[in-house]
Amino acid sequence: MSHRAHSLLVVAALLVLSSAAAPCIAETIELPRQVPAFNQGYTDGPNAWGNCTLGTDGCPDDIYATGCLITAFASVLAYYDVSVSVSAAASCTGTSRIGMDPGIFNDWLRENGGYGRCAQDPVGNCCLIWEQLPDEIEITTHVNRSEVGLNPVSAVVLDHALRQGYPVIAGVHYGAFCGGSTTQSEDCHWVVVTGKRDDTYTIVDPFNSDSTSPYGIRTTLDAGVHGRYIIDRFVVVEPAAGGTAALTLTVAPNRDVFQVDDRIRLTLWASADAGDVLPFARVTRPDGSVVYAVRDSSSALGIRWAGTRTSLVATPIALSAGWTWYDHRAAGGDVGSWRWEIWIEHVATPGVAVDRTSLAYDVEPWGGSIGVALMGVLAILTIAVIAFVTTLGASQE
User: Fold this and answer.
1) What is the CATH number of domain 29-239?
2) Is residue 169 a contact partner of residue 235, using CB atoms and an 8 Å limit?
3) Which pLDDT value is given to residue 182?
4) Are 15 and 79 in contact (CB under 8 A)?
5) Are 360 and 339 in contact (CB under 8 A)?
6) Handedness of CA 116, 120, 126, 131 (dihedral sign)
7) Which pLDDT does position 191 carry in this prediction?
8) Domain ranges (residues) in the chain
9) Sign of the CA dihedral 49, 54, 56, 58?
10) Cis peptide leading into residue 253 (ω within 30°)
């Protein structure tokens, strides 16, 4: 072998060795914002939801025991800033609520037919009806056909979703038969996949054994609360396509606390590309009842209340120029908290919200904080007038 050939062989061998020794650069994927983390086991604290009944029609479960899936969905819905409201009658807390957490979401599902019968739970309606999720999101379900990790196809789909900014809800198992406690071998637990770091995926685990904490655990698939997780199926959650609706409270001055005799005006706008739509206004009134507002010029309020799902108007209208549909001077019967949910739908797709927004405000009696301040001013003025008159009388003696 020539000296030149020997030198080339040595260089080639060094290149092979150096490439083999070089570390593999793993991809890091992060969602554009943090996914809120909720704990299904939160049973001890303000508005705790862990002991709330899950499902309907005699379902024996509660959120603490089997609420990992709805807790995961509550995290993702909060990520997308989706808010729902529940009446006092349907609320686990006994009071009407608006927002998003596992308790509110569970109550909303119970009130809106979100639970049904399934083979895993033969008693009562304990299983989530996927078609009854809020209209603001769209889901696609995928199956991972591997018992040791993600297969290549599933990995590509999951990574693409995360790069697009879409969180993923994953059904997982850990060990044989869910840790040996049941005969179930798949979808033993549900977690939220939030990103990718090194050779594993970051997750929000919805179970935290600290019953005083409302927060889930931020960890990885390799170090879940129950051990190393293997994904069985996963659900990519995207925001639903649609126009933009914005509810604006136009009262001078704009605020979230009003007094009796204040004028309250609600105006709704939608983008021009939304076209003609049917607007809906669902309100939780101070007495905890939930009703729908319907435009009615014969009513003193300009609207009437309906107990069933009813649009504000009978025929679609355009909202691009703004539409004031509630113009009311607050009266004594309005005192308390008002929570509005507003959304718009197209006639061709009834029940599918193009977009949704919400609004909350309180009405106080005239003797509230502003009234007290005015009374104080009047008292000072009265004292000043009396002092002036007294002084004037003394100077004239």
Assistant:
1) 3.90.70.10
2) yes
3) 62
4) no
5) yes
6) negative
7) 98
8) 29-239, 245-367
9) negative
10) yes
- For residues 351 and 135, is the Cβ–Cβ distance under 8 A? yes
CA–CA separation, 104 vs 96, rounded Å? Answer: 9
CATH superfamily of the domain spanning 245-367: Macroglobulin (MG2) domain (2.60.40.1930)
Q: Are 277 and 316 in contact (CB under 8 A)?
A: yes
Q: How far apart are CA 279 and CA 342, in angstroms?
A: 7
What is the total residue count of the chain? 397
Kindly state the tokens that stand for 243.
């126009």
Positions in the chain short of pLDDT 70: 1-26, 176-177, 179-185, 241-253, 300, 351-352, 367-397
> What is each CA distance from 246 to 14, 190, 279, in whole angstroms?
64, 34, 12
Is the Cβ–Cβ distance between 345 and 354 less than 8 Å? yes
Query: What is the per-residue pLDDT for 130?
Result: 92
**What gap in Å lies between CA 362 and CA 264, rounded to an integer?**
11
User: What is the Cα–Cα distance from 251 to 190, expressed in whole angstroms?
Assistant: 45
Number of neighbouring beta carbons within 10 Å of residue 13: 10
Residue 195 bridge partners (DSSP)? 30, 202
**The two structure tokens encoding residue 157:** 């789909």
